Amino acid sequence: METKIYKLDHHAIDHEIIEKAAAALRKGELVAFPTETVYGLGADALCPAAANKIYAAKGRPSDNPLIVHIARWQDLLYIAKDVPEEAEKLAEAFWPGPLTMIVNKNEKVPYETTGGMDTVAVRMPSHPVALALLQESGCLIAAPSANASGRPSPTMAEHVAEDLNERIPIILDGGEVGIGIESTIVDLTEEVPMILRPGYITGEMLEDVIGEVQMDPGLIAEDSAVKPKAPGMKYRHYAPKADLKIVDGAKDAVISAINALTKAQQEQNKRVGVIGTDETAALYGGDLILSMGSREDEDEIARHMYRILREFDESGVDVIYSESFATPRIGQAIMNRLLKAAGHQVLMAQQNNGGSEIV
Ligand code: TXA
Ligand code: MG
Which of 316, 304, 2, 9 is CA-nearest to residue 159? Predict the structure, then answer.
């Protein structure tokens, strides 16, 4: 199948293109489109055959449910069995925006969309192209991130094309996304609302609006027997081809530890990548050194992470050492994704008299 890529300027959206994409959605076809978080791969959420096409195109396990994107609050009432009062408060505070809420579904939502679950994930995106597509099609749009399963989420239309070229008919290219990390998921079907995936909207921001919120123990447990509640969080994900390790510790110890590790690998003829920041990149001696941006600007770090992981895949490095990014606000989401990409391999660097050591 030929994949058509249409460029859209979000300040002046070409309505003819949106109409074409909307018509495809209504016919049960797939359309990739930008959201403020990452690119999504959309299909009519209430049509089982259309939802099935998403799993086939991505190579996604069929028990991994999809997020239903909506443009109006009434659309949530249309597909939810009951709407907890927290949903209304959170929608008021954060929709349209990077927050997904899980509620009990009614019979209108097919099990193909929810991966067999009786709950449904719902989000109202704020990206003008996403909203235009929702409004024009009149569909509720099921959309996971528009990457092939197991690859980093796409933050540019080029990433979607890399993974899904000739597997989907239409990609709407709205340029690089603003946030770069997937939405926060909060489950409102629990007694106490629970964060199943950290994102741009932090636990503190949610608590300011609805009171106590807990974190899924499956996200923080070292013990791999404690499974995350969002099926998608249990899969190995966002994994670059090279062996990625995170080096944590004080700044100077990290820099000298990464340089020592790099040297040891290069002596064994391995090609080494390093993930640093604008403040540190010049201090490393690897084969490919990429900066996530300034440590002062955590939004920039979030926006660059997935593109950088993809660049390492292109470059053919064998090993990647990354600085740690437990920054104050969105840092929890950044580290959650980076730890998954690294298969939770973290080395602690400590300064000693001669230089540094891994402890
Ligand atoms: O920012 C985002 O959320 C992006 C854009 C496109 O909106 N979408 C996205 O979708 O990240 P996806 O499919 O890549 O991730 C959805 C996550 C998966 O981990 C899935 O298991 C979880 O949400 N999920 C969906 N429905 C669920 C449900 N009913 N219960 C628990 N987890 C659910
Ligand atoms: Mg995804």
Answer: 304
